[in-house]
Design brief:
This protein is an alpha/beta fold and 364 residues long. The chain has three domains: 4-49, no CATH class; 64-165, HUPs (Rossmann fold), CATH 3.40.50; 198-363, 3-Layer(aba) Sandwich (Rossmann fold), CATH 3.40.50. It has 13 helices and twelve strands. The strands form three sheets. A five-stranded parallel beta sheet has the order 5-4-3-6-7, with helices on both faces. Strand 4 (91-97), helix 3 and strand 5 form a beta-alpha-beta unit. The chain is elongated. It comes from Dactylosporangium matsuzakiense.
Length: 364
């Protein structure tokens, strides 16, 4: 039998420990031989053992960890890596590899990471791969590098850190796959990343043109969410202060519901419409409403149906003028839009066709 100290590949597990022997030995070791070898191995392990060799509890010893990645985008695989790292250290630094051709700006990725992992430090790393350790060491001297990459041990050695391997195969997702077809990996997208990829479709138009009915119907059709008109929720009496509240509430509701969207989020009105309402009522709008974020598609509801709205908000005679003002602004800004006319069914059919075209443009 080969001595336990020579440790060829383990062949047998016996007596609570591995016992090692030559696979080709004749005769094969008996149970007594294996038991003796296992006992010898235990004696060698415990001869110089002291309890303090275990070290302090992970995370309670002031250790500093580092995670390195592109995060294009942040997904649940990254979340597992970072949460695993946070279970081991008191301080975690996340370094984001950035390049000129990154499809998602660093500031966006940084905001995602800080929202998901408050208390971490998020820093960009530029340059070639060989330069990354130097850039990292300029910021922090880590004890650990957490990595699921093959080059993790080499990078850790250059940092003077210990590499803690993390199993990257537990969650079968990749940034490359998400960038190619994000909604095939929907369950791996954190809420802020889901909002980034959600396409926004705005139902816009004058009063009593079926925007709310269409927004609800489209959300049902595409199994997703919709956002009601905030100005209507604030009541019929509109003041300059109401405009500001409506704009803030509309923007917040859109962003919050986009985090819960399935591919699409439909909005009954958006900040562009709020600005035009303000211009119509007061001849001016808040400066911060001059350049609202555009929707991916506007569905302009024509005023070709009987008026049934609140007479104090928009008289029937003013609907056409307001519709024309909206259309002129969409054209001026170069926003993509489709005009919807006819009864509810006709509008819904036209809207679905337009949204399906948008889906093909965005995701194939």
């Amino acid at each position: 039998m080969v001595s336990a100290a020579t440790t060829p590949p383990p062949i047998a597990w016996y007596g609570g420990s591995f016992a090692y022997y030559d696979e080709d030995s004749t005769p094969p070791p008996s149970d007594a031989d294996l038991d003796a070898a296992a006992g010898q191995a235990r004696d060698e392990r415990t001869a110089n053992f002291t309890l303090d060799q275990f070290g302090p509890e992970p995370g309670g010893d002031g250790k500093v960890g580092v995670v390195l990645g592109r995060f294009l985008p942040v997904h649940d695989g990254h979340r597992y890596l970072i949460e695993f790292a946070l279970a081991h250290v008191a301080e975690l630094h996340i370094f984001v590899r950035v390049g000129d051709d990154d499809p998602i700006p660093f500031d966006v990725r940084r905001a995602w990471l800080l929202e998901l992992f408050p208390g971490t430090a998020v820093t960009p790393v530029e340059g070639e791969r060989e330069q990354w350790p130097e850039r990292i060491l300029a910021e922090v001297r880590p004890d650990y590098l957490f990595s699921g990459e093959p080059d993790g041990p080499g990078t850790a050695a250059r940092l003077g850190a210990e590499c803690i391997p993390v199993n990257r195969h537990l969650l079968l997702v990749s940034g490359t796959g998400i960038r190619k077809s994000p909604w095939d990996y929907e369950r791996f997208l954190p809420p802020p990343v889901r909002a980034w990829y959600a396409a926004r479709v705005c139902l816009i138009g004058a009063e009593s043109t079926g925007k709310t009915t269409l927004a609800e119907g489209l959300a049902r059709h595409y199994d997703t969410v919709w956002v009601p008109e905030r100005l209507r929720e604030l009541g019929p009496d509109i003041t300059p202060a109401t405009i500001a509240l409506a704009a803030r509430g509309q923007s917040a509701a859109e962003d919050l519901m986009a985090r819960r969207a399935h591919r699409l989020v439909f909005t009954d009105t958006d900040l562009l419409a709020v600005r035009l309402w303000s211009m119509r009522l007061f001849g001016a709008a808040p400066p911060w409403l001059q350049t609202p974020e555009p929707a991916h598609l506007y569905l302009l509801c024509a005023p070709d149906r009987q008026f049934s709205g609140d007479i104090r908000r928009n008289t029937p005679a003013e609907r056409l003028a307001f519709h024309e003002a909206i259309e002129a602004e969409l054209v001026r800004l170069g926003r993509p839009y489709v005009t919807l006319e006819g009864d509810d069914d006709q509008r819904l059919t036209r809207a679905v066709a337009a949204v399906d075209d948008l889906r093909r443009q965005l995701w194939g």
